[in-house]
Amino acid sequence: xxxxxxxxxxxxxxxxxxxxxxxxxxxxxxxxxxxxxxxxx
Length: 41
What we know:
With 41 residues, the chain is mostly helical. The chain has one domain (8-40). It contains 2 helices and no strands. The longest helix is centred in the middle third of the chain and has 13 residues, at 11-23. It is globular, with a radius of gyration of 11 Å.
């Protein structure tokens, strides 16, 4: 398996995967109120 660094065009797919976890408050390090831009920065 080859793992590559993310590219700007990957952001939509990444957001779809991680947004539900962040919004549910199921992470200790990310504020559920963070914007997409803050999370993907």
